């Protein structure tokens, strides 16, 4: 939790870029892209103006979640090398400003999405913000090594929201997209934790590498990757899949499984000898994994509008 008394005084006046950094723009990119794919993959077309406005408000909601997360986690961000230069621990923005920004953008995004799209989409966006800011950030992250597993749901809701923007309802296809992100999140973050473990030790965050050790983490990465591969390839035979998606999924998941297998076979002596090269490669591949899968879903949706996609 943020301790205002321990937050460094502002070194200089905050710039616009510092407030934008509070919104976690890199995370926002993934949210926008997967929500857009969810909306365009739906069997109901959306007016371009309504679609643009809706995705914009989803992006603002994602940014609100990021600001609230940075407000709450400022104390641990300050002791982790990966996050120490974020606006609050760097002394650029005060915690109260981040909190006000997060709360304000949350209300704005939910209210405007309800007006632009429908109330169910707005309700799902509100639930996602609360889940990330409260359930994950304030509770799970510091309480259990399953923080990433359960908390990963927050990042998996955007395609569901996108689908609801178009259809006003839930569907199996929307939850398949949710499941792709949900199952991808643990191996993605656990690979990062393998070569950034000291950060989580220093911050007293119960990541799996800290609570159960690296060998257990390697086993978990392999297990989740196997389940993810089954899910990802199986999605190719659903209504949002098709020949293009299936080809992409087969290649990507073969590479992902190979990477997870190599991680599982490694011991710490070998990993430290090459500065965790295998783990770093797996993590980099995971960065492209979702974009390419959702890009393939988007291609299939485009082909279907031309009467060429699907099975």
From TrEMBL:
The chain crosses the membrane at residues 27-46, 52-72, 119-140, 147-168, 174-195, 221-240, 246-264, 285-306. PROSITE patterns: UBIA (PS00943). It is a multi-pass membrane protein. One of its GO terms (molecular function) is protoheme IX farnesyltransferase activity. It holds the Pfam family UbiA. It catalyses: heme b + (2E,6E)-farnesyl diphosphate + H2O = Fe(II)-heme o + diphosphate. Its main location: membrane. NCBIfam families: cyoE_ctaB, PRK04375.1-2. This is Protoheme IX farnesyltransferase. It comes from Sulfitobacter alexandrii. The gene is ctaB.
